[in-house]
């Protein structure tokens, strides 16, 4: 059965006019149930992740600053979120959701966190709507518990996974692969194991051809036994922040490609959502929903 991490706390309210679309965390489950892709039985409510698994990835001093709400004004500004204890608890819950979804992937081949994809969080700081890095934490959890030996992180959000790249800069057990807009945030890029920087306006044909070629090469060379997939949908042409030109159909083909390679290679895959900032929220929901439709089609 497809297992999906979701909690009401994922929908932590933000000040009116805030550009991060928290409402998608409510609307996406509603849409998936309405169309019959999943039922309520597919969802599980995560539990907060223990501190030791967070500080296995992030510096303990940074973790304590979050818990104590002791970030400076500039540090708060960099995250993009108003700081609160509710926000920190939300982040810790999301970390638990990704780890638990990965454990379900070990059993069923695929597991999904309806939140997560927080790839801009560094070992010692947060950026770009990311305070803790669930991709990094989940990879380290799998390695530490000997549930994987080689973890591939496939990051297809339009923004480079700079925090993830920093976390695993010197760790050969994790391969970081990021396809992103060349001229988009972050303006100062980190160095992933494989970075593919796309020009403004890049559409389905260019994106999918580069993805297919790169995935084949990485899978052969690195031979991962677990995949973490950041499936942000801000590569859509309609996205306010994306600057690329993908269609809903292109997003569907992208997700199907990643999950098909995972299934054919018998490699468990944990998927997390990442960004999506189209003017019409229904475009964000429909694009995200492709992943769940594909997962049900391929695995169940």
From TrEMBL:
Keywords: Hydrolase. One of its GO terms (molecular function) is histone deacetylase activity. CDD domains: HDAC_classIV. The keyword Hydrolase applies. One of its GO terms (biological process) is epigenetic regulation of gene expression. Residues 18-280 form the Histone deacetylase domain. Belongs to the histone deacetylase family. PANTHER family: HISTONE DEACETYLASE 12 (PTHR10625:SF19), HISTONE DEACETYLASE HDAC1-RELATED (PTHR10625). This is Acetoin utilization deacetylase AcuC-like enzyme.
